[in-house]
Design goal:
There is one protein chain. The protein is an alpha+beta fold and 494 residues long. It is built from 12 helices and 21 strands. It has helices at 2-21, 30-43, 130-133, 233-236, 295-304, 352-368, 372-382, 399-411, 415-429, 436-451, 468-477, 482-485, and strands at 47-49, 52-57, 60-69, 76-84, 87-89, 93-105, 112-127, 143-158, 161-176, 194-208, 211-225, 242-252, 255-268, 275-288, 308-320, 325-335, 339-348, 386-396, 455-460, 466-467, 488-492. The protein has a 21-stranded antiparallel β-sheet that branches.
Length: 494
């Protein structure tokens, strides 16, 4: 892998700077341009050679049995390289209509074994001098673009570690040479985002010292990554439209520990330009608990009787950037024969302006080491945010009675006796809060739930949205007023 990177830099980055200074370089294309790179590579200590070459036209050529070397022990052998429409455009760009490479491999016995069935680029356009193009003042105009870039049959091996990918592709790419994430810069303010129409990866297989990983497929569509962290926060929420994965597995020592059947996340901002909605689903989540290397965990797991877990996760939410209402209408994690966790909430006042200000404060705090000043700066923004509702619910599917039986056995009691005593323990534990009504409500709900486990819910549903700053202030000055302020309810078996 180091050889590939070094060879690429040698052949492209270091050579093309001189190419730009050559008065006749603007007219180079096809074989003449290839010859120029060969010469410049030699000046950098490397070699590009082939057994025969065929010129298809003035700007198109096929090279057979190509060898690339940076002077090290392991050259790269290529069966054929086909270049169509290969030419300099103006004084600062290289274009290629078709770049097709077949049969890439290192020699047998190489320290790092690399094999690639094929590499193909369609309609590529690249800066002739990448280092110059990456400078902030040039980033807006010097970009990499191509219609399609695909790699098939990739395999890399080093010291027994192996990575292989059946196929991968990137379509409709427009990529800046540099992002300016490290510091605010007026130079980079106008750098357009990275745009990629579609990324696909199929058949990933990693077998390394740390474990084994496999993925059936990966898809990402309509990727649009801002060029600065401090850009409009709404742009970060529109970074892509769809992401899908399938058949993911992870294991150690040849034993599978985790698998995921499928996962999908979609972002929709087309229906309402002022609103971003998101939906995420993960199906067929599998965990093999017997493979977790922790004796204490295994002892507890054995007593509970769980060997494997199977579940799913769903998350649905939206944010209206104009009205400032952000809500999660469903966030659910559900495991068979265990239980389900449900979370919903809604806040108002979270407009783009507020989000932008909070982001700015966080960036400044990170640069200055955080501290109380950041919290003080956030307080005026928190006055604009209001809690509309919040709910957290657990629905039992057998784990509660199993935990009761386990705990009761350790205490020398029956599960029924422990469940009956739980409300008293709850009230004793909450005495220090000085919230007798809340303590009684929680104790009652816990008692009802443990005596007949169905569900238990903690919810805040105020009659009108409550400013978050008031809740924070009450938490510091008079926490006993919070339950009434937000209409906090704890109920069971509803």
């Amino acid at each position: 892998m180091r050889l590939i990177k070094k060879s690429s830099s040698m052949i492209v980055s270091a050579s093309v700077a001189t190419l730009m200074l050559t008065s006749s370089a603007f007219a180079l294309e096809g074989m003449a341009l290839v010859d120029f790179f060969v010469k410049k590579a030699a000046e950098e200590g490397g070699t590009i050679s082939w057994t025969n070459a065929e010129e298809l036209s003035s700007d198109s050529v096929v090279l057979n049995e190509v060898t690339l070397s940076d002077g090290g022990k392991d050259p790269i052998n290529i069966k054929s390289v086909r270049l169509e429409g290969f030419k300099m455009v103006g004084d600062d760009r290289l274009e290629v209509r078709v770049f097709d490479v077949q049969g890439v491999a290192t020699p047998d016995g190489a320290r790092e074994s690399i094999k690639v069935g094929s590499v193909r680029i369609n309609d590529g356009s690249f800066p002739a001098d990448p280092e110059q193009a990456a400078r902030p003042e040039n980033a807006a105009k010097h970009r990499v673009s191509f219609g399609r870039f695909e790699v098939n049959g990739f395999e890399f091996m080093e010291r027994g570690n192996r990575v292989s990918v059946t196929s991968s592709s990137i379509e409709d790419a427009d990529i800046p040479m540099k992002w300016d994430y490290d510091r605010p810069s007026a130079d980079a303010g106008d750098v357009p985002p990275m745009k990629i129409g579609r990324i696909t990866v199929n058949g990933v297989d990693v077998d390394a010292d740390g474990g084994q990983f496999a993925m059936g497929s990966f898809l990402l569509s309509s990727l649009q990554v801002p060029s600065k962290l401090s850009t409009n926060v709404s742009d970060w929420l529109k970074v892509m439209k769809v992401m899908k994965v399938s058949n993911i597995t992870f294991g150690m020592g040849g034993t599978r520990m985790f698998s995921l059947g499928s996962g999908e996340t979609s972002l929709d901002s087309d229906t309402n330009p002022d609103e971003v909605s998101q939906e995420t689903k993960f199906e067929d989540i599998n965990l093999d608990l017997t493979k977790i290397p922790d004796r204490q965990f295994q002892a507890v797991r054995g007593q509970l009787g769980y060997e494997k877990l199977n579940g799913r996760m769903v998350g649905i939410g939206s944010w209206n950037m104009k009205t400032g209402r952000a809500a999660v209408s469903e966030m659910k994690l559900d495991f068979t024969d265990v239980g389900a966790l449900d979370l919903t909430y809604a806040i108002t006042g979270y407009t783009v302006e507020v989000a932008q200000r909070i982001q700015q404060i966080q960036l400044e705090a990170a640069a200055n080491g955080g501290g109380d000043q950041a919290m003080m700066a956030l307080m005026p923004e928190l006055t604009k945010l209001k809690l509309e509702s919040f709910a957290f619910k657990f629905t039992d599917a057998s784990i509660t009675n199993k935990l009761l039986t386990l705990q009761a056995g350790q205490m020398g009691q029956t599960p029924e006796a422990l469940a009956g005593a739980a409300p008293m323990f709850v009230q004793m534990g909450m005495q220090g809060l000085n919230m007798p009504q809340l303590s009684e409500m929680v104790a009652k709900a816990v008692g009802q739930f443990l005596s007949s486990p169905k569900n238990i819910e903690v919810a805040a549903r105020p009659a009108a949205p409550v400013p978050v700053s008031e809740i924070v202030g009450a938490g510091m000055a008079a926490p006993q007023t919070i339950p009434g302020m937000i209409n906090l309810q704890v109920v069971a078996n509803q």
